[in-house]
């Protein structure tokens, strides 16, 4: 029993070391599902900066301004809409082209597999594989061969796709690609 | 779990903790630049030379000595110049 526990903890530390992920920069984030649920208002923690605190500060140090707290510098997260939006807000950027518009669906070739993103998709961050990415808006489909990058799908159906480089598939020479792959 | 099995499990988990290019010893930038170079290499002719021309760098060096500039030297990644 004792050896098993020790093994598990050592595994965890090895994993952490290999991933290069440090706990020092961890910022607890509020969960969107909780925020959007009807009981959210009651369960929200009370703010640290209250009027009483400001009054107490004024009493102690009248000539000093109330100090700024991290929430002063934080931009508010955009609110999650109550119903799933009809269109996906796409921010697809390439070095020399961009598609910043509302579309119906995007098919992203993620390293974990090809994923189709519709409005209301679970918030995800994926690494893009060098494959075909397609944007579907009504009847028209635009395709790009993307070499890599990352895609961020947010809870409010805004999809940011930061592609390293990408070109329409018509620009490619298939024979050259087959030769290069072998 | 015996000791060698445990070591194997640890190695597998460690390998799965990072993407394959990290395990191969590359950084993300090295990997993505290699992928992009390959993609650009597979382009058809007008687009291929367009992207190659975008990658060219031109420099103009001017050495200064005692507040006086000497003749500027032009350097380019384009071998013709």
Topology:
The complex is a heterodimer of chains A (182) and B (81).
Chain A lengths: L1 H18 L12 H5 L3 H4 L7 H10 L9 H4 L14 E7 L2 E7 L1 E6 L2 E5 L6 E5 L3 E6 L2 E7 L2 E5 L4 E6 L2 E2 L6 H8 L1
Parallel strand pairs in A: 1-9
Antiparallel strand pairs in A: 1-2, 3-4, 3-6, 5-8, 6-7, 7-10, 8-9
Chain B lengths: L2 H14 L3 H4 L4 H14 L3 H10 L3 E4 L2 E2 L2 E2 L3 E4 L5
Antiparallel strand pairs in B: 1-4, 2-3
Provide keyphrases for this structure.
heterodimer, A: 182 residues, alpha+beta, five-stranded mixed β-sheet, five-stranded antiparallel β-sheet, 6 helices, B: 81 residues, two-stranded antiparallel sheet, 52% helix, 15% strand, elongated, ATP_synth_F1_esu_sf_mt (chain B), ATP synthase subunit epsilon, mitochondrial (chain B)
Report what the structure shows.
- Chain A has six helices and ten strands, in the order H-H-H-H-H-E-E-E-E-E-E-E-E-E-E-H.
- Chain A has helices spanning 2-19, 32-36, 40-43, 51-60, 70-73, 174-181, and strands at 88-94, 97-103, 105-110, 113-117, 124-128, 132-137, 140-146, 149-153, 158-163, 166-167.
- In chain A, strands 2-1-9-8-5 form a five-stranded mixed β-sheet, with no helix packed on it. A five-stranded antiparallel β-sheet of chain A has the order 4-3-6-7-10, with no helix packed on it.
- In chain A, strand 3 and strand 4 (113-117) form a beta hairpin.
- By secondary structure, chain B is of the alpha+beta class.
- Chain B has a domain at 3-42.
- Helix content of chain B is 52%, strand content 15%.
- Chain B has helices at residues 3-16, 20-23, 28-41, 45-54, and strands at 58-61, 64-65, 68-69, 73-76.
- In chain B, the strands form two sheets. In chain B, strands 1-4 form a two-stranded antiparallel sheet.
- In chain B, strand 2 (64-65) and strand 3 form a beta hairpin.
- Chain A: It is found in: Mitochondrion inner membrane.
- Chain A: One of its GO terms (cellular component) is mitochondrial inner membrane.
């Amino acid at each position: 029993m004792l050896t098993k526990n020790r093994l598990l903890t050592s595994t965890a530390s090895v994993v952490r070391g290999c991933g290069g992920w440090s706990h020092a920069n961890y910022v607890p984030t509020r969960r969107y599902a909780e925020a959007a649920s009807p009981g959210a208002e009651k369960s929200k923690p009370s703010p640290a900066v209250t009027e009483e605190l400001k009054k107490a500060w004024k009493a102690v140090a009248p000539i000093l301004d109330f100090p700024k707290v991290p929430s002063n510098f934080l931009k508010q997260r955009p609110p999650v809409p109550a119903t799933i939006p009809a269109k996906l807000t796409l921010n697809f950027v390439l070095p020399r082209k961009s598609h910043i518009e509302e579309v119906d669906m995007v098919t992203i070739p993620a390293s974990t597999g090809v994923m189709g993103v519709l409005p209301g998709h679970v918030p995800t961050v994926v690494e893009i594989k060098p494959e075909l990415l397609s944007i579907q808006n009504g009847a028209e489909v635009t395709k790009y061969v993307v070499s890599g990058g990352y895609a961020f799908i947010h809870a409010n159906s805004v999809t940011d796709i930061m592609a390293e480089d990408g070109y329409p598939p018509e620009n490619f020479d298939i024979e050259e690609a087959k030769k290069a792959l072998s | 779990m015996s000791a060698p099995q445990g070591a194997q499990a640890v190695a597998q988990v460690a390998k799965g903790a990072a993407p394959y290019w990290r395990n191969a010893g590359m950084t993300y930038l090295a990997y993505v630049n290699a992928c992009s170079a390959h993609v650009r290499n597979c382009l058809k002719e007008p687009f291929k030379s367009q992207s190659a021309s975008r990658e060219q760098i031109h420099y103009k060096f001017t050495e200064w000595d005692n507040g006086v500039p000497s003749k500027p030297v032009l350097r380019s990644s384009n071998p013709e110049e």
